[in-house]
Specification:
The protein contains 4 helices and 8 strands. It has 154 residues and is an alpha+beta fold. A hairpin with a 6-residue loop joins strand 2 and strand 3. Helix 1 packs across helix 4 and helix 2 packs across helix 4. The mean pLDDT is 94.
Length: 154
């Protein structure tokens, strides 16, 4: 796995960016920016430290799938760390095997650095080699969407 980093300056305080990114006040704000990865993207579970959370979407055949993860850390308005440890295949959690080994233990970290009522969101994520180009293209679009909805939100 390779560690990738992305960042975006958003003209809003860290609390607002954090709540919008995680969909804490309205899950639709999470779904809007993550739609860049999958138009049906959502999550099931809690952002609380130690909680299991599913990052799910539906594929072109209507089949549910996604990542099985744990919130390793959550310091409100400052830092969130997600540890991916399995794949969701329909209703089944797959936590071992070749497909899972590409991702197992991979981290996705979000840092929120506020300065002068503006927030830099830094994303650091582990990615399997075959997804590097996809992530380089998609994370930029997703963070631009997050910036747009956060700045537009009242």
């Amino acid at each position: 796995m390779k560690k990738l980093q992305y960042q975006k300056l958003i003209n809003a305080p860290a609390e607002k960016v954090y709540k919008t990114m995680l969909g804490l006040e309205n899950i639709e704000t999470y779904q809007q920016w993550t739609a860049e990865f999958n138009p049906t993207s959502t999550y099931e579970g809690s952002w609380e430290k130690g909680s299991k959370i599913y990052f799910v979407g539906v594929d072109e055949n209507g089949k549910r799938g996604g990542m099985v993860s744990e919130i390793s850390e959550n310091i409100p308005f400052r830092f969130v760390s997600i540890r991916h440890y399995g794949i969701l295949d329909g209703e089944n959690e797959i936590t071992e095997g070749a497909e899972v080994e590409k991702w197992a233990g991979g981290l996705e970290n979000y840092s929120f650095i506020e300065n002068d009522n503006k927030t830099t969101v830094m994303v650091e994520t582990d990615a399997a080699e075959e997804y590097l180009d996809y992530f380089d293209n998609t994370w930029d679009k997703a963070l631009n969407k997050l910036k747009e909805i956060t700045e537009k939100k009242g």
